[in-house]
Design a protein that fits this description.
By secondary structure, the chain is mainly α. The protein has helices at residues 10-27, 33-39, 44-71, 74-94, 98-126, 132-160, 163-184, 204-236, 242-270, 273-289, 296-309, 312-323, 329-357, 360-380, 391-398. The chain has one domain: MFS general substrate transporter like domains (Growth Hormone, Chain: A, Up-down Bundle). It is 78% helix and 0% strand. It is globular.
Length: 405
């Protein structure tokens, strides 16, 4: 099997650059969350609310962002989103109290919503069904690089200087992204000429709603587990510092970095469903494994498995592109973002409430159960008529095509 890459235009490369900075913004706070919690003397619920506030504005702007995408110049929209991320990060670094910091996260969330909608819809609309997985996989590779660097670097900056410097640093480097986009991103999205095949999807609505349900559940789990439970458990139970927590979280991003591009490429050939099933199963096993975690090494193994599970976001996005006509692209992607962001709001808050009332075990049971439901939906609800989910195909995928077609 030859792993060819789609041709990358200057605009696509610019979108990848934006993705890196977007990923940085959403992953840099988790390792320093315990320090923020201690400085502002917050409960678990209030600390988790900081993560949710970032998602609340994303939730509110998810659907309007899709409308703006259709009506506004893409270049101005993306630069404006990065500018909001930079401004919010600057406010966070200078915040004098909890409410000011909370407001900064709302501003950053608004910028994130605008940016991610612009990037994902532009990339998916620019791709054909045959290379959509490759293109989204390359974007996921870039995102995971940001996801690896951000927690580790944030932890190091917090240990050497202070947690506020993490946000000041991001505010400064995001200006570089704005400059690069201004000079290299034209904002023009060229849709390839493709025959519309929505009619061949007999269970289009069933699969569409199944995708939405999976994205809701997996985002609840992602933010509740990786965003809140793991860093708080590592800090309060295992007594790890911000640098160690940042490295721990980077393990999942590193595993995602390895598997996401390859899985995305293979999904163009073997279908999306098999990877959705495998990734939701990995989510389930990693979260239930949290119930018996005793030390840093255990958490590291679980975060590696969780990183593989995170390819669910790539596979789901690619499948949505496969079953969606071009004229409905921004609407369906905006709805997926709305549902995903709703999950990101619920996840940290539910986790915080459970931690304050029942402890870490209760969080593990709840998030593990939600992951299992997502696995069942991927296995039995998602339809992909062109591909069978059987052992031979699984072996073929695992051996990179050497087992036989």
């Amino acid at each position: 099997m030859k792993f060819g890459l789609p041709r990358i235009s200057k605009d696509i490369a610019s979108l990848f650059i934006a993705t890196f900075f977007i990923a940085f913004s959403v992953t840099m706070m988790s390792p320093i969350l315990p320090e923020i919690k201690n400085e502002f003397q917050l409960s678990y619920t209030a600390a988790s609310l900081l993560l949710s506030s970032f998602a609340v504005s994303r939730l509110i702007l998810s659907i309007p962002s899709g409308y703006l995408y259709e009506k506004t110049n893409k270049k101005n929209l993306l630069i404006g989103g990065i500018a909001l991320l930079s401004a919010g990060s600057l406010i966070a670094g200078l915040s004098s109290g909890f409410l000011m910091f909370l407001a900064s996260q709302v501003i950053m969330g608004a910028g994130f919503s605008i940016c991610i909608t612009t990037v994902i819809v532009s990339l998916s609309s620019s791709a054909t069904k045959e290379n959509r997985g490759k293109l989204l996989g390359m974007n996921s590779f870039v995102r995971s690089v940001g996801g690896i660097i951000a927690p580790t670097l944030a932890g190091i900056i917090a240990v050497i200087f202070a947690w506020r410097n993490v946000f000041l640093f991001y505010a400064a480097i995001s200006v570089l992204c704005i400059v690069l986009l201004y000079f290299f991103f034209s904002g023009e999205v060229k849709r390839p000429a493709e025959k519309e095949e929505e009619a061949e999807m007999k269970n289009y609505k069933q699969t569409l709603y199944g995708l939405f349900a999976i994205m809701l559940l997996t985002n609840i789990v992602f933010m509740g587990f990786r965003g809140s439970a793991v860093p708080l458990f590592a800090s309060d139970v295992l007594k790890l510092d911000s640098g160690q927590i940042g490295f721990l979280l980077s393990v999942s991003a590193f595993v995602f970095l390895i598997f996401a591009p390859v899985s995305a490429y293979l999904s163009d050939r073997h279908g999306r469903k098999v990877f959705m099933v495998l990734s939701t199963l990995a989510f389930t096993l990693s979260v239930f494994g949290f119930l018996v975690a005793k030390n840093e090494f255990h958490l590291m193994l679980l975060m590696g498995l969780f990183g593989y599970g995170s390819i669910i976001f790539v596979s789901s996005t690619a499948m949505l592109g496969d079953i969606t006509q071009a004229k409905h692209a921004s609407k369906n992607y905006s709805m997926m973002r709305f549902i995903s962001d709703f999950g990101m709001v619920i996840g940290p808050v539910a986790t915080g409430l459970l931690l304050d009332s029942y402890g870490f075990k209760a969080v593990g049971w709840l998030l593990g159960a939600l992951s299992f439901v997502a696995f069942i939906i991927a296995l039995y609800v998602i339809e992909e008529p062109k591909y069978r989910l059987d052992l031979k195909r699984l072996l073929n995928i695992a051996t990179f095509g050497r087992f036989g077609e």
